[in-house]
Specification:
EF-hand-dom_pair; mainly alpha; globular; KCMF1/Dystrophin; Recoverin, domain 1
Length: 188
């Protein structure tokens, strides 16, 4: 019984680790909410090592894990999300020089916990494919034009025309990011 509560506390501490580190950075002293939010999201991006992954590697990971064939409304489990994230970081470490290797397990844990906090606030243990793609495409590194092209491809039909309901859904998904770093009222 005592061991179970110790494990539970450790798990909760791991889930909060990124947020504790973010609060320690004291970003809340920044007056303008847009700058404050940008600093917080950049901190998350760098702490999770997403700045090292470009959009092309994200797309490759989506394809490798079959997310490109799924409907946007399909829900995936947290364990499948962990598999996607794992493949992103293991592929990243293969591309990095041995002197610049990242801690894959720590990066997986931080990003997984952040995504769950941001997109599964109800605790259902499932996220939509569109949520996963929107968040990872937004938070990854790479050229802005490439990222925008990819995002547009996810919101457009086969004729290249934007589907406004998908654009609306994309905005809702992306606006969950400021909420996840406690800046929701500024952008709600």
């Amino acid at each position: 019984m005592i061991e179970e509560s110790g494990n539970k506390r450790k798990t909760m501490a791991e889930k909060r680790q990124l947020f504790i580190e973010m609060r320690a950075q004291n970003f809340d002293v920044i007056r303008l909410s847009t700058y404050r939010t940008a600093c917080k999201l950049r901190f998350v991006q760098k702490r999770c090592n997403l700045h090292l992954v470009d959009i092309w590697n994200m797309i490759e990971a989506f394809r490798d894990n079959g997310l490109n064939t799924l409907d946007h409304t399909t829900e995936i489990s947290v364990s499948r999300l962990e598999t996607v994230i794992s493949s992103i970081y293991y592929q990243l470490n293969k591309r990095l020089p041995s002197t610049h290797q990242i801690s894959v397990e720590q990066s997986i844990s931080l990003l997984l916990n952040f995504m769950i906090a941001a997109y599964d606030s109800e605790g259902r243990g499932k996220l939509t494919v569109f949520s996963v793609k929107a968040m990872l495409a937004t938070m990854c590194g790479g050229k802005m034009l490439d990222k925008l092209r990819y995002v547009f491809s996810q919101m457009s039909d086969s004729n290249g025309l934007m589907i406004f309901s998908k654009f609306d859904q994309f905005l809702k998904e992306v606006l969950k990011l400021p909420t996840a770093v406690f800046e929701g009222p500024s952008f709600g």
